[in-house]
Design goal:
327 residues; alpha/beta; two-stranded antiparallel ribbon; 46% helix; globular
Length: 327
């Protein structure tokens, strides 16, 4: 008798899972035998990735600047969230057009060379951490169309904002009550599919409730946490982002709780510190108040992004420019 360790396998399939896979395999084989050329032309496989709702910061990422004599900050150990969501990768055909738009080199060795150059630059910057892994550096490269100078500016601002605006970047445990309840008054899912032109859609809508000013800070913190998750998980690259904002419950009392200073800091972080490419912004269910809100945030939004904002009176108007169904 011998003692053996368990063998790790990607999935433990139940009897039902196995039956379903057998049925699908037999159906696919029958279609193949009936018309091989047509079957291969129409058969589509999709790559996918599952991402956690919350990925805790590493010890290196959570470092903070402190003055001489100050006590080192404490941080509880946090694991990956149990909840996950699936995000689909672009199809091979979409990847071709996305690479062209992002000016991504076809040879992976060229990307590795750029990453090496960025790491060499980081070594010459004593004020910047060296914790950025290759996947996130690649995402920065794609977001900056592989301009090394733009990547350097983004990285510098990314780390500068983390120290300059601790209200957005500290205590980022989504299990904390004050962050967990954000999901009760703001829904901001990034949809798993992508548009035919390779863009990812994020839908944002508020729930009609009596939130307080500090809840706005928490909501912005959660939005940036989602940005950090995508920074690490968008492994294939996308052509940009589409944001859909539902203004149905916007009211004067809600608007009065927004501080210009907080909004400015948040928009600087989004536009200057993250490699996000905002291609479209659609505002639906508008009211006269939306014009006031837009004029309020307009000074803090880049001209290029302002030109990409479209207002819609209803959802049907939105569907004329945004696909109703995603792959």
């Amino acid at each position: 008798m011998s003692k053996l360790s368990s063998r790790w396998v990607p999935r433990l399939l139940s009897a039902e899972h196995k039956r379903n896979r057998l049925v699908i395999a037999k159906e696919s084989l029958a279609l193949l035998n009936a018309n091989k050329n047509e079957f291969l032309r129409r058969f589509v496989t999709v790559d996918e990735i599952w991402i956690h709702h919350h990925i805790p910061e590493s010890k290196e990422q959570s470092k903070q600047w402190i003055s001489t004599g100050e006590t080192a900050p404490k941080k509880a150990k946090i694991g990956l969230s149990a909840n996950k969501m699936m995000m689909l990768h672009p199809t091979p055909a979409q990847r071709v057009s996305i690479r062209e738009e992002l000016r991504e080199p076809e040879d992976p060795a060229d990307i590795e060379r750029d990453i090496k150059l960025i790491r060499e630059w980081l070594e010459t910057q004593p004020h910047l951490p060296k914790d950025m892994d290759d996947m996130r550096l690649t995402t920065f490269l794609r977001g900056c169309k592989f301009s090394l100078e733009k990547v350097k500016k983004k990285l510098d601002m990314y780390y500068t904002m983390r120290n300059a605006v601790p209200e957005f970047f500290s205590n980022r445990d989504i299990n904390r009550e004050e962050l967990n309840i954000v999901l009760d008054y703001v829904h901001c899912p990034t949809l798993p599919g992508i548009t035919p032109n390779g863009r990812r859609i994020t839908f944002i809508r508020g729930i009609d409730c009596d939130f307080q000013p500090h809840h706005i800070l928490d909501a912005m913190k959660v939005a940036l946490m989602i940005g950090d998750v995508r920074l690490a998980e968008e492994s294939m690259g996308i052509a940009g982002d589409v944001f859909i904002l539902d203004a149905a419950v916007a009211s004067a009392s809600h608007f009065a709780k927004f501080s210009p200073t907080v909004v400015k800091k948040f928009l600087i972080a989004v536009q200057e510190a993250y490699p996000v490419k905002v291609k479209e912004v659609h505002v639906i269910n508008i009211s006269p108040l939306v014009d006031t809100i837009f004029n309020f945030v307009k000074p803090f939004v880049k001209e290029k992004i302002r030109s990409r904002i479209t207002f819609h009176n209803d959802v049907e108007s939105l569907y004329k420019v945004v696909p109703r169904d995603l792959n």
